[in-house]
């Protein structure tokens, strides 16, 4: 392993707890995929060999320079190996699976098998004790506190431009459930200047750290951002509960792991023991409330989001799984902070603060469909009522939670994700804004 050339100035207590938990994963199992120091690989790269091997080898080399152990089939498998068994062991023992998703990957039976095995291993990791629902952080003040654990293997997908989001069911699931690292070139090595692949590498490095993987920064690597304190609470007040998850939203890659397995388990109806069933139309509640944060022109803005949803009226005996829905989303600014301290951010702070003081809200009209089998509401905004230009048109995804032991609780809690759609007229939006945000939603009606 290569040591770091750049030391972090102080300790990130949340990361240290996540990293220690990652090291425990399957530590005592009889696995055969080893890397000496940890006993198992940190990352498995899933790839279509004919189109992605050079890119994968470059990525593997860069990660290994930073102390991250990586498994990929073309370098790990030797003549005479039972490659299927080796791949199964690699999937089950890696802390993170990094699929390099292009059109050929989506059509490959081998890649599909790897992906489905990773989903199922992730799904049952808490139940089998391979991972913990909660882990304990040793607080700097000497007081320990719990945070949510990460199901493993976790996912850090890298998407290439020759495949559409809805072209493959697995890709569509991931697009609803976790942040993608998106490459605009057909491979990582197409960019002659090297700027694109350097940016992609930094995103991957930071994504791995958010999943508890230790990365030794080299000179030129961006500094790590400390993880927010993400405590587990029994608070039931919807507003207070929603506020508590804002800190977790800032580390989206980690927080979406449970959500990923939730939806993927519904898509895998043949999975034994899942004890899942289609949602009732009444499980999709009429009103959901949530909070989220994002960066706008150098300002961190805290939003209150309220969704109103109206399913189509259907006959009592209509059992279709895809239901048309309409609705609206109302956004209000709750708090705004100047993070950049530039002339532009100061101007934006004044604009947003003025809207907050006057309690201005913006409304987006929504239409889409509710997939009862997966508990997934897919909503596209087609119109906005926003006199002051504080929101932009977005695509929304709302994934309901299901309680197999108490159907009355189905749909009470949900998680949302939105993708802003570029709008040249919305001059408050810049290219470096967050392209997705995760929202914890609570039904209030």
UniProtKB/TrEMBL annotation:
Question: Can you name the source organism?
Answer: Physocladia obscura
Protein name per Swiss-Prot or TrEMBL: TIR domain-containing protein
InterPro entries (UniProt xref): TIR_dom, Toll_tir_struct_dom_sf
Question: Where does the record place the TIR domain?
Answer: 43-120
Please name the Gene3D superfamilies in this protein's record. Toll/interleukin-1 receptor homology (TIR) domain
Superkingdom of origin organism: Eukaryota
Q: Per the record, a Pfam family?
A: TIR_2
For this entry, list what GO says about its biological process: signal transduction
């Amino acid at each position: 392993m290569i040591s770091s050339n750049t030391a972090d100035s102080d300790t990130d207590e949340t990361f240290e707890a996540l990293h220690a938990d990652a090291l425990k994963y399957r530590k005592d199992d009889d696995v055969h995929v080893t890397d000496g120091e940890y006993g198992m690989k940190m990352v498995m790269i899933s790839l279509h060999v004919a189109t992605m091997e050079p890119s994968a080898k470059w990525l593997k080399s860069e990660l290994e320079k930073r102390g991250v152990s990586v498994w990929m089939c073309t370098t790990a498998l030797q003549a005479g190996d039972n490659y299927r068994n080796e791949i199964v062991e690699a999937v089950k023992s890696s802390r993170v699976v990094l699929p390099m998703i292009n059109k050929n990957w989506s059509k490959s039976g081998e890649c599909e098998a790897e992906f489905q095995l990773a989903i199922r291993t992730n799904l049952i990791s808490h139940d089998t004790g391979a991972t913990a629902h909660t882990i304990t952080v040793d607080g700097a003040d000497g007081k320990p506190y719990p945070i949510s654990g990460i199901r493993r293997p976790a996912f850090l997908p890298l998407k290439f431009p020759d495949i559409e989001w809805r072209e493959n069911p697995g890709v569509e699931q991931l697009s609803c459930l976790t942040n993608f690292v998106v490459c605009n070139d057909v491979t990582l090595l197409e960019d002659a200047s090297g700027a694109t692949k350097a940016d992609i590498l930094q995103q991957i490095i930071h994504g791995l750290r958010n999943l508890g993987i230790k990365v030794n920064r080299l000179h030129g690597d961006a500094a790590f951002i400390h993880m927010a304190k993400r405590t587990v609470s029994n608070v039931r007040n919807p507003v207070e509960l929603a506020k508590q998850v804002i800190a977790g939203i800032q580390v989206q890659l980690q927080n979406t792991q449970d959500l990923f397995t939730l939806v993927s388990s519904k898509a895998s109806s043949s999975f034994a023991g899942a004890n899942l069933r289609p949602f009732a139309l009444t499980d999709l509640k009429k009103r959901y409330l949530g909070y989220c944060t994002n960066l706008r022109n150098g300002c961190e803005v805290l939003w209150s989001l309220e969704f109103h949803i109206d399913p189509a009226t259907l006959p009592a005996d209509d059992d279709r799984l895809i239901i048309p829905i309409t609705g609206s989303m109302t956004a209000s600014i709750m708090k705004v902070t100047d993070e950049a301290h530039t002339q532009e951010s100061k101007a934006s702070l004044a604009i947003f603060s003025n809207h907050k003081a006057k309690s201005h809200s913006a409304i987006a009209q929504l239409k889409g469909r509710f997939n009862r089998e997966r508990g997934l509401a897919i909503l596209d905004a087609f119109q906005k009522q926003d006199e002051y230009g504080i929101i932009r048109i977005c695509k929304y995804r709302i994934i309901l939670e299901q309680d197999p032991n108490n159907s009355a609780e189905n749909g009470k809690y949900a998680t949302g994700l939105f993708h802003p759609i570029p709008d040249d007229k919305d001059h408050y939006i810049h290219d470096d804004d967050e392209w997705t945000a995760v929202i914890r939603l609570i039904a209030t009606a």
